[in-house]
What does this fold into?
Amino acid sequence: MSGKTGFIGLGIMGSRMAANLVKKGFEVCVYNRTREKTEPFKQQGCGVSYTPKQLAGWCDTLIVMVSDPAAVEAVMEGENGGFAGLSKGKTLINMSTVSPEFTRQLADKCAKSGINFLDCPVSGSKPLAEAGTLVILAGGSAQDIKRNEKLLLSMGGKIIHAGPAPAGSYLKLCVNLVMGHMTSAIAEGTSFAEACGVNPALVFDTLEANPALQCRYFNMKRQPLLEKKFTPAFPLKHMLKDARFIMSVAEQKDIDIPVTSAVLEILEKSAEKGHGDEDISAMYEGLEIHKK
It folds into this structure.
């Protein structure tokens, strides 16, 4: 396939997304701040850049998939950052979940330099990233999305065009708002069952047996919540970050979202207790009901 693709960020999600690009035949070169994570790609014959600037100078399309705005700035700004290597006509695709305001700043900076920009956070956690079935929430022009369709669909099963940037970032926050509520609900339901002397597995059995309440997401959280082993598929600290973005947008737009406010409080309690690096289902640890 034509075009050179640079990929920055080889964490839980990024490593699997980049691996799918390699499997689909794209010419890929990678960069990661923790260099050991580039080794599996080097062994597959991929290039490894020493700086984001070097990578951006080599590629036609640069994908960034890191944890937060600070991490994006760390790899994109400065004399060795990605922006120092990007030139007019190249494409930057930010797939990191950042605030809409930060996305708008990225889009404006790219526009001033003649760089094509796509705002493409993803919906899905580690299993979907591994399978290449993520949902790509795309913000940008229809033309730019169409031009990058094969690239994006090598990492995802569907592209949803949300509108011009930062619409992808807004849509991502809407989806994660729902996911935060769902996770808190099933964690609290599990905890409530335990407090009532009911086998919490029966909660999951009942949800699965009811056609109106069947949910693959609940099934994914069944084992972590029943075994209290919160191996990260989507780290709690990332949901905490996103919940804070959501509340910030709500404040800016004068929107009342009381349930999300309560979810944020549970996330903060869980993180304070040392569960930030664990799966989002560790929200269970932020609940007090099971300790009474």
Summary: Residues 189 and 203 are 7 Å apart (CA to CA).
